[in-house]
Amino acid sequence: MSELAHEIAEAVRRCPDVADLSGGPFGTVATYLPGERVSGVALREDEVEVSVVVQPGRPLPEIADEVRAALAPLVGDRAVNVHIGGMQ
């Protein structure tokens, strides 16, 4: 699970118009691992939640769709929920 959480975080950061990951409201979007926390990625058995900070200029649903498409090869049949945590 540790490796997958990191792979997801890197794939999200590579998406166009994604400035960075965000911990979401109160820092609750995270995966807790032994000795570390992957902020902005909540990896669960049946879903993945990501919270991102985006660049302004494009429709938010398009950015969310690109994030979902980038994660599809990594997450299998898990649902991907994208939270826009802010704009840079």
What would you report as the Rg, rounded to the nearest angstrom? 12 Å
Uncertain spans: none
Strand content: 35-45%
Report the end-to-end length measured between terminal Cα atoms: 30 Å
Note the overall shape.
globular
Order of helices and strands: HEEEEEHE
Overall pLDDT confidence = 95
Tell me how many strands there are.
6
Main sheet characteristics: 4 strands, mixed
Alpha-beta classification: alpha+beta
H/I helix tally: 2
Helix content: 25-40%
Give a quick rundown of the structure.
This protein is an alpha+beta fold.
Description of the molecule:
With about 90 residues, this protein is α+β, with helices and mostly antiparallel strands. The chain has helices at about 1-15, 60-75; strands at about 20, 30-35, 35-40, 40-45, 45-55, 80-85. Strands 1, 4, 5 and 6 form a four-stranded mixed beta sheet that branches. The protein has a two-stranded antiparallel ribbon with strand order 2-3. It is globular. The protein starts with a helix and ends with a strand.
Which key phrases capture this entry?
88 residues
How is the secondary structure organized here?
Elements: H1 2-13, E1 18-21, E2 30-33, E3 36-39, E4 41-43, E5 47-54, H2 60-75, E6 79-87
Parallel strand pairs: 5-6
Antiparallel strand pairs: 1-5, 2-3, 4-5
